[in-house]
């Protein structure tokens, strides 16, 4: 029998409640008794090279000698693979035979005690869930984590094992205290993208604290939307922003774009319709000390696009920038002053299920501002000034393919329909369809970024 088979966990396909004691087993193998403890390091290295050392995760190969007298004297041995038979030198490598002949080691029988702690998540579940259940799918190893909460989205066929899956996941991930399973699709029951869930393991404590892009966020995971798998996307978009720019985050949530942008000294108008998201966004502003740069709003996104644009044109705000204060030294003087722009450089619309339907709010964005004529509005932008029209970053869902050609066409057609103006990568300035992530076997999340066309921005409506 191979080493892998001999050290594998025992199998129990009927288990429905996790029994950790079941995964205890004794493996009959061999060990190299070390007569002089000064030789342990040398012998371990040589036996590792000959592949005779039992090199198994979570199994320490250096053990006390099984002989009680030798154990009391500090004797040690090195556990060998089961294929190395203690009384059959033919199974030994030439190096091990040399070590034995020189009196450096003696090959002895050894009983290796393994238990639940020696096996990882996949090994335990593989010993419980029948192989036929995983023919077309891998074991349910994927989960997202927000603070101490692990969030599963189990397929129906794994529901009979849900409590075992959750218990093992919590055992094998020290940072996880609570495991939940989503029981409905995000957005079908709640416009705020919260979802009904069941607690499978641990306390029903959804108040989490986590860090992303050097910022701290604390919130009730049951009351707001958060997806830790989007951290690279949050970072990608924030990297585009430049210090001193004005950003309009229309569906800001608790601030995964807004707070890091504020840290970069961008001026951010951050809005969310969910009162709880608004509350935790304000908390994040305080904790991360970005209140000079970020303003929070609790409005409908359709209206906010227009009101925030008009308000920024009239707002007068600036922030003094100070060098970092060194301990024991007096407060430094301001080195410069950042003046808030009167025009947004970027609009973020991270509501992929419906954000595209908010695009009509950009039609005539600069043609219906009280006190400003269309001609005056045009004079604010290039070619009359160096200020370009803003970038729009709108998230959406589509199908998935290897090249995303059909998806790009479909997304552009829908954007064009909403704006009543043709938008396409080869026609619209700075347009890019960014593949964000897969969200289901046939569903993918995208970010469509494009510069607001002048024909849309100044259209009289």
From TrEMBL:
Location relative to the cell: Mitochondrion matrix; Nucleus; Cytoplasm
Record-level GO BP terms: mitochondrial tRNA methylation; tRNA N1-guanine methylation
Keyword S-adenosyl-L-methionine (UniProt): yes
First-tier enzyme category under EC: transferase
Enzyme Commission identifier(s): 2.1.1.228
Subunit description: Monomer.
Name of this protein: tRNA (guanine(37)-N1)-methyltransferase
Species annotation: Pleomassaria siparia CBS 279.74
Gene designation per UniProt: TRM5
């Amino acid at each position: 029998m191979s080493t892998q088979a001999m050290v594998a966990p025992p199998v129990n396909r009927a288990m429905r409640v996790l029994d950790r004691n079941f995964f205890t087993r004794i493996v009959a193998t061999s060990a190299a008794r070390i007569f002089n403890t000064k030789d342990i390091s040398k012998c371990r290295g040589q036996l590792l090279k000959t592949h005779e050392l039992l090199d198994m995760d979570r199994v320490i190969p250096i053990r006390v000698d099984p002989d009680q007298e030798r154990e009391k004297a500090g004797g040690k041995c090195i556990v060998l693979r089961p294929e190395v038979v203690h009384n059959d030198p033919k199974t030994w490598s030439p190096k091990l035979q040399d070590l034995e002949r020189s009196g450096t080691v003696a090959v002895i029988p050894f009983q290796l005690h393994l238990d639940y702690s020696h096996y990882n998540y996949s090994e335990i579940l593989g010993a419980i869930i029948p192989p036929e259940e995983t023919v077309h799918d891998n074991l349910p190893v994927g989960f997202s984590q927000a603070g101490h909460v692990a969030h599963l989205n189990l397929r129906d066929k794994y529901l009979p094992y849900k409590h075992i899956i959750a218990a093992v996941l919590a055992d094998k991930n020290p940072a996880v205290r609570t495991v939940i399973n989503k029981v409905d699709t995000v957005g079908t029951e709640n416009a705020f993208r919260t979802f009904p869930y069941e607690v499978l393991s641990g306390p029903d404590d959804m108040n989490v604290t986590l860090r992303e892009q050097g910022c701290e966020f604390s919130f009730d995971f049951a009351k707001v939307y958060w997806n830790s798998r989007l951290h690279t996307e949050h970072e990608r978009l924030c990297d585009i922003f430049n210090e001193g720019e004005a950003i309009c985050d229309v569906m800001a949530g608790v601030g995964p774009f807004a707070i890091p942008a504020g840290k970069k000294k961008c001026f951010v108008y951050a809005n969310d319709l969910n009162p709880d998201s608004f509350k935790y966004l304000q908390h994040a502003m305080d904790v991360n000390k970005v209140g000079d740069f970020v303003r929070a709003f609790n409005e409908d996104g359709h209206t906010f696009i227009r009101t925030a644009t008009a308000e920024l044109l009239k707002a007068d705000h600036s922030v003094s920038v100070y060098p970092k204060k060194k301990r024991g030294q007096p407060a430094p003087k301001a080195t410069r002053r950042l003046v808030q722009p009167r025009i947004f450089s970027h609009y973020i619309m991270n509501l992929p299920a419906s954000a595209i339907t908010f695009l009509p709010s950009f039609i005539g964005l600069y043609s219906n501002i009280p006190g400003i004529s269309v001609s005056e509005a045009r004079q604010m932008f290039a070619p009359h000034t160096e200020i370009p029209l803003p970038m729009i970053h709108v998230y959406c869902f589509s199908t998935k393919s290897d090249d995303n050609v059909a998806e790009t066409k479909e997304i552009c057609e829908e954007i064009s329909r909403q704006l009543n103006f043709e938008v396409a990568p080869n026609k619209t300035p700075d347009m890019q369809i960014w593949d964000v992530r897969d969200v289901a076997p046939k569903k993918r999340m995208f970010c469509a970024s494009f510069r607001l066309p002048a024909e849309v921005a100044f259209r009289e409506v």
